[in-house]
Write a sequence for this structure.
């Protein structure tokens, strides 16, 4: 387990962008656990929650524009599925791991010891915060973000298109359920987590009131797809 934090200059070299305001980069790399730890010592340190909020929107704009141009013959529904697949926590954590983002983060001691530098939720959020930091530092322009981000997005789109991630799991599950008459399939919102600006929805897929899948995502639509995906695994239609 890597415990030592790397110098942020190495991250700048990896990203291909040198920050004018180093403080905003440090803020993007600061987890709440570190901020809380420093607060207990009487020092105020900003953490990356606000930047994550902005980064989520920046990410959506860049990805939406890219796939709009890349897939000129696809309709809105297909574009939405593609975007959801490449901006989900799993994909963002993958990008973060590829640039070893966790190694540069400011984490509380407990998070470091619990392998927080590789925890998907932590590094995915930090990746969004990093995008926001670049956006703000370069004068709210997208060019530097596009140069850094698009190669990862394009590679991920090519990968998941080959592995079938763009499949509409809800439709597939519905078709299976309809083979037997009288079956009732529904998706139920059972909870929400996180602050209002970064909320995640928890959805259960239920067949005749029995839970057959769970999904957690930043939109109800994506959470339903995740729940349907889990149900298809349960039914043996997909491998894990």
């Amino acid at each position: 387990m890597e415990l030592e934090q790397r110098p942020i200059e190495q991250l700048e070299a990896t990203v291909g962008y040198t920050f004018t305001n180093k403080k905003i980069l440090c803020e993007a790399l600061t987890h709440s656990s570190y901020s809380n730890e420093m607060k207990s010592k009487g020092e105020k340190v900003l953490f990356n929650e606000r930047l994550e909020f902005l980064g989520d929107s920046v990410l959506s704009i860049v990805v939406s524009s890219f796939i709009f141009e890349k897939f000129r013959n696809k309709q809105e529904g297909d574009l939405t599925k593609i975007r959801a697949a490449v901006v989900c926590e799993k994909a963002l954590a993958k990008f973060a791991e590829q640039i070893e983002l966790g190694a540069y983060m400011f984490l509380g001691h407990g998070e470091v010891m619990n392998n927080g530098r590789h925890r998907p939720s932590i590094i995915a959020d930090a990746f969004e915060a990093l995008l926001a930091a670049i956006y703000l530092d370069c004068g709210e322009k997208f060019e530097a973000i596009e140069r850094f981000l698009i190669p990862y997005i394009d590679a991920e789109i090519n990968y998941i298109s080959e592995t079938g991630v763009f499949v509409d799991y809800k439709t597939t599950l519905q078709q299976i359920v309809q083979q037997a008459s009288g079956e009732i399939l529904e998706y139920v919102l059972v909870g929400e987590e996180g602050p209002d600006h970064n909320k995640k929805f928890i959805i259960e897929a239920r067949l005749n009131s029995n839970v057959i899948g769970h999904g957690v995502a930043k939109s109800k639509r994506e959470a339903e797809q995740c729940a349907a995906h889990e149900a298809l695994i349960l039914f043996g239609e997909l491998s894990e």
The radius of gyration is 20 Å. Residues 108 and 152 are 29 Å apart (CA to CA). The mean pLDDT is 90. The beta strands are 185-193, 200-207, 210-217.
